[in-house]
Amino acid sequence: MTDDWAERLRRKRAEKDDFFAEHQQSPIPPEERDAFDGLEYFDPDGTYRVEATVSRHEEPDPVEMETTEGRTVRYLHLATLSFELGGEAYELAGYRQAGDESGTLFVPFRDKTTGQQSYDGGRYMELEVSGDLADGETLVLDFNLAYSPFCAYSDTFDCPLPPETNWLDVSIEAGERAP
């Protein structure tokens, strides 16, 4: 990991803090923005930037994810991402919302920091994928980019909760901390 990588991450975090503090679409309620002085983050740590091997699902399984408001929203399980962290093997499912044709792979997860050091509803990662995913392809999972959904900051948002298949039995001390 280079210092340049950590500096780019810090700049990205500063941009997000500015958005949350000033933008009209910020999830921070308007009456709380003056007191907002930035999100809490774990320190950048290259240990949590890993390569994952893609197992593509040719016929993606539909998955009904529960939301923070008790509804369900349909996603398609497009791929399974296999990776190692601390010498242990793990898997996360990658999803795309039914009807979404973007190149974004949605990876919601919980870990042993959930509800303690990080938001109790879990955190998200989004991976930009160019073209179709190929079986055996490798992607970088950078948990330093893991973020809390908007519902962590305001009850006006309804967010999908990570399904049990994406509950990791390890502490991921990277990305955003609990608000």
Strand arrangement, largest sheet?
Answer: 3-2-1-6
Unreliable segments (pLDDT under 50, ≥5 consecutive)?
A: none
Helix-strand string:
HEEEEEE
The overall pLDDT, averaged over residues, is 93
Quick one: overall form?
A: globular
How many beta-strand segments? Answer: 6
N-C termini distance:
27 Å
Classify the secondary structure makeup into a structural class.
mainly beta
Helix content: 10-25%
Protein name: DUF1684 domain-containing protein
Region (Disordered): 16-40
Organism: Haloarcula limicola
Pfam families: DUF1684 (PF07920)
Give an overview of the whole structure.
The protein is built from 1 helix and 6 strands. 11% of the residues lie in helices and 33% in strands. It has a domain at 42-166. The protein has one helix at 3-22; strands at 49-66, 72-85, 88-97, 104-109, 123-128, 138-142. A hairpin with a 5-residue loop joins β1 and β2 (72-85). The longest helix has 20 residues, at 3-22. It is mainly beta and 179 residues long. The chain has a 4-stranded antiparallel beta sheet with strand order 3-2-1-6, with no helix packed on it. It has a two-stranded antiparallel ribbon with strand order 4-5. The model has no long low-confidence stretch (mean pLDDT 93).
Task: List the main descriptive attributes of the protein structure presented here.
179 residues; mainly beta; four-stranded antiparallel β-sheet; 1 helix; globular; DUF1684 domain-containing protein; DUF1684
